[in-house]
Amino acid sequence: MTTKDSNHLPVIPLSPIIQSYILSSNALSQATEKLNEAKQTNPPVSVDVLRRLIENVRVERHRLEALNRKMQSVEAATPLYWDPDTLARQIAIIDSQLMNDVVLDKQDFSAKSKGISRFVDFHHYLSHNMAHQLIYWVELTKPDNQTLVVPPIQPKENLAHHLLNVAYLLLHAYRDFSGFAAILSCLDLPQVRRLPKLWTPHTRTMFDKLSMILSPENNYKAYRHFLYNQLELHLAQKKMRIAIPWIQPHLASIAADDTLDTELSILELCQGQDMPPPSSVDKHRPAPIYLDGLGAVMPVSHLNSLGPGDELTHHWLVSRVYLDNDQLMHESSQVLPLGPEESIVLPSEPSDVLHDSQQKSSVLSPAAPEFIPSISSREENWEGYLSDEDSEIWKGYPAPSTEDEEEEDEEEIWKGYPGPKSVCSSSSSSSSKRSEEWKGYHATKMEADWQRESELKVKQCEWQGYLVQ
């Protein structure tokens, strides 16, 4: 197992290939050391002994190189390298192995227990691993990307749809609720949801239907109902590994209420340790499951009967890079830059999520008091800033005088249109009118003569208008 440091890196199991590589490396070192000692022995060893030591070194080196080639063969692989059933089966195998280490002890059962913490850590590691694979796949599908991966990128393939098929089989064929929740959680991360390349109408519909099982409403009622149905279906085989639970809702329920006995009894039914006889397993074989592009998948009755599985798939699953939420956000923004008005709220880190239900006090300090704003019952009117000598107190802006109000009221009263003015007026008034006339474009000679004649007639007598015949 890898270690967990202060940055909350998850503890994940070593792959069988890595374990074999470590053993072969130690064996090669020992064989090489014995060969060097034999060459320096005086008197020298026999030729047969020397040949045997040389052969041992050659065999161990060949074994080490073979393991190295195996690891390199899947170094550039994507999840599309395996069909959904192979991936789902191997995830269920790893979760089942980790479930074996979970100790359901009433006296010492918490999220920090050794078996529980490793089981939860792999859940979060798998979720972030697949989130990275989805983001990286979007980058690989760009036309100008020349990165070589296995298998080569095909235009019609969709990694999100592929992983949803994996989640479907984890739920219905292997009853691995932990792996199922990990796959759906990675698809629900904001770093993944914002990438439109992953989402088609069919993918969105399938995701919405499956994610309903993980709804937190009514204490995860949908998940518990599905789990209870599976337990009731296989309850006759009490010692079977019926299902692999999604441990987070059970831990949250224990932390919130006094339901330790109930939750432990449910987990004990899921865990089941002993291997049943083959006859009892065959009696309860359910109907096969069919997926597009995949043959019939037979659901497994006893999860401990899955065996070690495929070592290459196992190695790939537990040897991928782990990126935290900030690193996933940086990777997602590099693949698709953030829009001008796009804002993303990142979820809490996995290590913090487990204890959110237990944190009731302030985030700044567990002993920090709760802030309650005080409201004064007496309203005080602000009287302005005091002067330097405190001699004058500002009383606000002065109120308008009554005379001004009366004048404004008189102006607001409409007194009708003004009466008509006399056309004939004194020469001074006519000259003032002429001065107010527009001095724009120059009139023609005929217009100027007509204007002079009309002004002369106005001066001589008052114009009475047109005659009525």
UniProtKB/TrEMBL annotation:
Pfam families: RasGEF. This is Ras-GEF domain-containing protein. Keywords: Coiled coil, Guanine-nucleotide releasing factor. Residues 402-412 have a biased composition (Acidic residues). One of its GO terms (biological process) is small GTPase-mediated signal transduction. Signal peptide: none annotated. The lineage of its organism: Eukaryota, Fungi, Fungi incertae sedis, Mucoromycota, Mucoromycotina. One of its GO terms (molecular function) is guanyl-nucleotide exchange factor activity. Residues 47-77 form a coiled coil. Residues 342-368, 392-440 are annotated as: Disordered. It comes from the Eukaryota. Residues 83-331 form the Ras-GEF domain.
